Amino acid sequence: MIKVLINIKISVLVLAVFLFFADASRAEDAPSYKIYSEIMTDSMIKQWMPIVDSLQLDPGHYKTFLWVDPCPEKPFRITCYRPLDERSHNEPFCEKVHDEASGEIFYKDGKALIFSVASKGFLLGEEIILLVYDKDSNKIAEEKVIPFPLAKSSPVDHAEISLKLFMISPMMYEVRFRGFPKDECLKMESESEHESMPETVLPKLEGICVNYSPDVINSEGGTAKLTFTRKSGEKITFRIPWGDCLIPYLNGFVLAPKVIPFETKK
């Protein structure tokens, strides 16, 4: 009896090892998808004929294009979530299916263009999540994009400051710094509805993150002025609407700048 049990255990172990290596082999055979996003203005879109038709959709707004390499086998789909929109109840706000009836997929530098989204109706710095599923409904890629970025790059050395909205009420932004010299310090000042924040010195910018809120107690809304001053005297300034001043953004009335003041590829 003991010998039989030992043989059964050995058989189960061998089967488990076989299944493990079979799964590992399938994982190695499965393609590794890389996903890219790029923001364009109308003038940039006009320079590439395959996407010129997108100018007819929400003209004057940024367009974020999503590229994947390699292109998944049809049918596959892209599902979009808007985490900060409480009305969505965690349901996708948009979905696109690529099948045989959906038309030709365009390529650029070997990457397949599979999706685009306009900045119309989004808040400054609001992040959305794009998920790509294969024909068997397996998630094969994920990308987080900000359709209406709140970011600026220095014209001197391209050092960049970006703000990501992560809370609506109270309104809170995550401020990040990229490309600054390791030993550089910044002075941070804010004024919102005649309420000023004392000057703050930010040392060692590499890898740090600062939370910022433009909200003012007992005020319905306004536009905050957030300024960062570099050692050289260069100032990088943001004007950030909040409260009632967000309504034009949600309604899609605010157009994007004609010149993008930040890095457009990710």
Structure write-up:
The structure is a single chain. With 266 residues, the chain is mainly β. It folds into two domains: 34-145, Immunoglobulin-like (Sandwich), CATH 2.60.40; 152-249, Sandwich (Immunoglobulin-like), CATH 2.60.40.10. The chain has helices spanning 2-29, 42-45, 247-250; strands at residues 34-40, 63-69, 76-81, 94-98, 107-108, 111-118, 128-133, 139-145, 150-153, 160-167, 172-178, 186-192, 195-202, 209-212, 221-229, 235-243. The chain has a four-stranded antiparallel beta sheet with strand order 1-2-6-5. The protein is globular and about 60 Å long. It starts with a helix and ends in a 16-residue tail after the last helix. The relative contact order is 0.14. Residues 1-27 have low confidence and may be disordered.
What brief labels describe this structure?
mainly beta, Immunoglobulin-like, 2 domains, four-stranded antiparallel β-sheet, 3 helices, globular
Indicate the topology.
Elements: H1 2-29, E1 34-40, H2 42-45, E2 63-69, E3 76-81, E4 94-98, E5 107-108, E6 111-118, E7 128-133, E8 139-145, E9 150-153, E10 160-167, E11 172-178, E12 186-192, E13 195-202, E14 209-212, E15 221-229, E16 235-243, H3 247-250
